[in-house]
Amino acid sequence: MPVSNTEIGAHSFTPWREAVSILPPELEERLERLGPDVLAALEEIRLRVGQPLELCGQTGSAFLHSVSGTTSIVADGVIVTSAHIKHVLAQITQFSMYAVEEELRRGFITIPGGHRVGVAGHVVTDSSGQVKSIRAIASLNIRVAHAFPGVATRLRNALYRKQDGRPYSVLIISPPQCGKTTLVRDIARQWSENKLVRRTVPAKVAIVDERSEIAGCIEGVPQFAVGPRTDVLDGCPKAQGMLMAIRSLSPDIVVTDEIGRSEDVTAILEATHAGVSVITTAHGLRVEDWRMRPNMETLFQSKAFDRYILLSRRRGPGTIEAVLDEAGKPIGFGGGPSC
C-alpha cells in the first residue's frame, strides 16, 4: 500500500504566513479570511495581470472570489492588476531589482522561509543568447515551501547499510510536485542530526543547492532545518558543487536536486568512487523512464545508486509508491511492504 506524508508521522508548520505577507494588504486580508486549514494546503499563489488570482493545492486549483471564499468561475475572481505585481516585486526585492538581478536570471527569487517566487515577462538576452534579465514582469508564481520534519523516518531501513550504518546512495524519482525536494531535505537533516542510525562518528553532509530549494538560503543562511553537521553551497551548479564539496568539505554525504546533465553523471561517479554517498532526485514515473533520459543509463549500469525511491501524488504529495534496490528490484522498507 502506498504511503503518504500523513501516514508517516510528518507534520507541517504554517509556512503560508510568510508567503502571504508579501501580497498587497487587500489580497493578504482576503486570503487570510479563507482560514488556516485552506491556507495550510496551499502550494502555489499565482498572479497574472488581467486574470483572477489563482490558488493551487493538493486538491486542485481555484480562483480567489471577489467577495469571499473561492470560485471556479473566472468572471467572479479577484482580478490581478499591474499594481499588485509591482507591490509584490517591491516586497521581495526590497525596492531594488538590481540587487536580485542574478536570481532573476534564474527565473525566480527566494524569500525568507525558503519560498520561491517565479517570474514571467519579457526575457532579455545578451549577444551569446544567455538570459540577462527579465523585464516587464506580468506573472508571478509564489511557491509555498513546506517542511515536513520526520518525512524520511519511515524509510530509515532503506537508507543505510545494516552491517556498518554506511549511508546508501539514493535517487528519488517522481513527476513534479510530488515531494522529492521535501524528502531529500529531511534525509539530509536526519543524517546530519545522527537520527537515521546512531553512528559513533555522525555523518557530515554537504548540500549543493543550485536553485536554493533544498536549504532555501537567504544570504547563505539556510531557512530550512538541514542539521548541525551540514554545509550548503547555495546557487552553485550541481556538478561543480559536488566536486568542490568533495575536495574542500570532506562530506560523507552529498545532497543535491534534479540531476540530468552529462556533467552531473561524471560528478556523481567521482563522488561514489571516492566513497562519498550521493542523495539526489530526478523527474520520472519509473526507473525505466529515468534510464531513457540522456546519460542516465550510465549511472544505472554502474550501480551508482544503492536505492531508488519512487514518489507520486496518488494519496497526496510524498506518497511512497516503491523502494527499489540497485538493480531496480522492489524491496521492503520500514517494516512494511514497498508498494
Automatic annotation (TrEMBL):
SUPFAM superfamilies named in the record: P-loop containing nucleoside triphosphate hydrolases (SSF52540)
Domain of life: Bacteria
Xref: Pfam families: Spore_III_AA (PF19568)
Gene3D superfamilies, A to Z: P-loop containing nucleotide triphosphate hydrolases
Record InterPro entries: AAA+_ATPase (IPR003593), P-loop_NTPase (IPR027417), Spore_III_AA (IPR014217), Spore_III_AA_AAA+_ATPase (IPR045735)
SMART domains: AAA
PANTHER family in the record: KINASE-RELATED, P-LOOP CONTAINING NUCLEOSIDE TRIPHOSPHATE HYDROLASES SUPERFAMILY PROTEIN
Name the record gives this protein: Stage III sporulation protein AA
Source organism (scientific name): Alicyclobacillus acidoterrestris (strain ATCC 49025 / DSM 3922 / CIP 106132 / NCIMB 13137 / GD3B)
